[in-house]
């Protein structure tokens, strides 16, 4: 535990919550500690990622241990991998059909970008990653389609739920990405609607943000269970 706090100090990681898991020293620990499949480490190598960023060091073990998480780290610090990596490691065990994980992004551009990154990281696995598009809502009955990870804006997902095009009752992981932007854009009602539709009681929620204003922190404390808070550097810079 002394060792944990030295590591956190070194990488400017601040945590609160009970029994916070040890930060990662390297990506190799994903295999030695958590038995990840080798395709994942290969993908990181191919992408030129040599070592985890601070947010990845702490958020990945938190999510892999099945804890909910709300995290704040600066723009460009690798938050996408911090939630995608544990998600695809956990989804390996195919326990159910339907949509198994949802990532909400503030804009269509960010959703498209996150989908691309997600696919790059899942390359070599059999996981299916889908971007919610207008066509997808119009043409496909998503409840009959297998999809491991669905990436969407809150507006499009809300629309799909209202049109009964989609069933989110089996979702095991829900991520609110760029949470401060989701709020700035006034998407709280849509987020609430999606969160309610993801009714699986054992769902793991996480929230990632570049800043952690009080309203984001309030939402996290209100809606999450036994969550770990991870802050890299200072809270609102
Ligand atoms: P954020 O969401 O925190 O703004 P991103 O997840 O978009 O940041 O990542 C920013 C950039 O850093 C991306 O180009 C991503 O591919 C790259 N990146 C992510 N993790 C690593 C890593 N461990 N090493 C090097 N580059 C990384
Ligand atoms: Mg991001």
From TrEMBL:
Domain of life the protein comes from: Eukaryota
Cleaved signal peptide residues: none
Record-annotated Helicase ATP-binding domain positions: 60-230
Family per similarity comment: Belongs to the DEAD box helicase family. DDX52/ROK1 subfamily.
Protein name per the record: RNA helicase
Source species of the chain: Erythroxylum novogranatense
């Amino acid at each position: 535990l002394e060792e944990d706090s030295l590591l956190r100090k070194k990488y400017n990681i601040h945590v609160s919550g009970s029994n916070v898991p040890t930060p990662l020293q390297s990506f190799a620990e994903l295999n030695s500690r958590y038995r990840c499949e080798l395709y994942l480490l290969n993908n990181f190598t191919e992408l030129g990622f040599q070592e985890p960023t601070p947010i990845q060091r702490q958020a990945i073990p938190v999510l892999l241990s099945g804890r909910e998480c709300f995290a704040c780290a600066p723009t460009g610090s690798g938050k996408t991998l911090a939630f995608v990596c544990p998600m695809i490691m956990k989804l390996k065990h195919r326990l159910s059909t339907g949509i198994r994980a949802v990532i909400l992004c503030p804009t269509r551009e960010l959703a498209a970008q996150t989908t691309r990154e997600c696919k790059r990281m899942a390359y070599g696995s059999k996981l299916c990653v889908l971007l919610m598009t207008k066509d997808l809502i119009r043409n496909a009955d998503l409840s009959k389609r297998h999809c491991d990870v669905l990436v969407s804006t809150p507006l499009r997902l809300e629309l799909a739920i209202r049109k009964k095009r989609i069933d989110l009752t089996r979702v095991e992981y829900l991520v609110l990405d760029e949470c401060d932007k989701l709020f700035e854009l006034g998407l709280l009602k849509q987020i609430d609607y999606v969160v309610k539709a993801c009714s699986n009681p054992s769902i793991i929620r996480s929230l990632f943000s570049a800043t952690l204003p009080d309203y984001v922190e309030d939402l996290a404390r209100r809606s999450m269970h036994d969550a770990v808070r991870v802050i890299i550097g200072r809270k609102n810079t």
